[in-house]
């Protein structure tokens, strides 16, 4: 970790990531991420209809999956220890992309209902730039309304839609690449062409490791 505060290993299509947030002589503050593609209907960790409030409800199968990881080197072996993880605060996210059609946005806009940011174009947490795109929308829409009022919003949609589509498309390619098995060729690692893709992410922020 000489040049970075982030280290990562891949096991097949799963990513194990550790970030060092802070270091003092006494302790490290680290966070970790475990992410992989959804395995579809038979995947016990894929819960597309769970409420947001259940992000802290971690299925037992997660700990079994972590426990089955083989040949982890340090510090991955230490951090991704299923027994230790049971006592940590772990969050479970479903990473989705969304792109609402331009015609739908315009139809609702004509009725005076306007959307922006994740409500129109959501990108996965990993490999996405959702926050950057959202800030740009907020500033752009405010400028548009200050200049033309809400009547300018339909035109604003026209000018932004290409950027939104490009952002979602690029984020889908990026998450597919991140979760691709190492042997895949770059040309064949992008299986997504549709509007929606779902990947899983387990996340822990600020786990402190006391140095002994
Ligand atoms: C764990 C995590 C990590 C992320 N990391 C990154 C990153 O590293 N880089 C990046 O670019 N993006 C990242 N993102 C994505 C980024 O946070 C979003 O793209 C961005 O916040 C979208 O902004 P938004 O305003 O559309 O939605 P939000 O930020 O979700 O804001 C929506 C707000 O509406 C409120 N709300 C919802 N329903 C109602 C209601 N009925 N009444 C009143 N209020 C309501 C919510 O409480 C919330 O405050 C991450 C997201 C998550 C979840």
Automatic annotation (TrEMBL):
<dbReference type="GO" id="GO:0004497">
    <property type="term" value="F:monooxygenase activity"/>
</dbReference>
<keyword id="KW-0503">Monooxygenase</keyword>
<protein>
    <recommendedName>
        <fullName>FAD-binding domain-containing protein</fullName>
    </recommendedName>
</protein>
<dbReference type="GO" id="GO:0071949">
    <property type="term" value="F:FAD binding"/>
</dbReference>
<keyword id="KW-0274">FAD</keyword>
<dbReference type="InterPro" id="IPR002938">
    <property type="entry name" value="FAD-bd"/>
</dbReference>
<comment type="pathway">
    <text>Secondary metabolite biosynthesis.</text>
</comment>
<keyword id="KW-0560">Oxidoreductase</keyword>
<feature type="domain" description="FAD-binding">
    <location>
        <begin position="106"/>
        <end position="156"/>
    </location>
</feature>
<dbReference type="Pfam" id="PF01494">
    <property type="entry name" value="FAD_binding_3"/>
</dbReference>
<keyword id="KW-0285">Flavoprotein</keyword>
<comment type="similarity">
    <text>Belongs to the paxM FAD-dependent monooxygenase family.</text>
</comment>
<dbReference type="InterPro" id="IPR036188">
    <property type="entry name" value="FAD/NAD-bd_sf"/>
</dbReference>
